[in-house]
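FAQ: What does the model actually see?

It sees only this:
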Amino acid sequence: MQLSDSHAHVYSEQFKPDQDEMLLRAFEAGVRTIFMPNIDHTSIDPMLEVEAKYPTQCFAQMGLHPCHVTRQFEKELYEVETWLSRRPFAAVGECGIDLYWDKTHLQEQQEALRIQVALAKKHNLPLVLHTREAFREAADIITAAQDGSLRGVFHCFSGTKQEAEEVIRLGFKLGIGGVATFKNGGLDKVLPGISLEHLLLETDCPYLAPIPHRGKRNEPAYLPLVARRVAEILGKDAEEVAEATTRNTLTLFGEAAQG
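And it is asked to produce this:
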């Protein structure tokens, strides 16, 4: 299988002891391209170091993660905007709204997302959206801003069938990861009937490792497990799932990956 990991934090501190070996395992497992969403100003240097070392395989994205939005978020977004003006990136992200851990900064998260949506339009880049416990809040902002130019992915999608259909109507993709392999993940009830053209595969490593590695550090080499489970849910061949989702990922983020 030839695969593309559409969302992987391979620059994470958790990979520091064995980063090269981890990436080699990924390439040997058939993962040909890896897209790296940014977190905040502290993750930029390690992310760009990985990209410089693996320029044809690992591609950087630029944004501010909602869990790192504070009252001083404008300073972080100034850095994001500066970098977007300085060189190419594959997407704006990861950005969005997260109400799982803390609802204190909801207004700041909403404003930070609106600003990053505007940056995506300005630079003609796709968005990588994080919407944990906040699908409605994030989708409302995307709906209000969608003028036909916005595109991107609702990463780590684990919502309802209705929410999946709303994402598709908005012109966005569904990022499917390790949750698809969980016994009570719910995606076995959501994905049937959804065309492969709307799906991307991801690990979100080092988080959300698929079965049988659940609870351990995730890595891109585990992406074939996600592909096989999605194929099983859809009643399709794993090769077909790999081919379609890789094509979708490279089409969405493709200028960076192919340029």
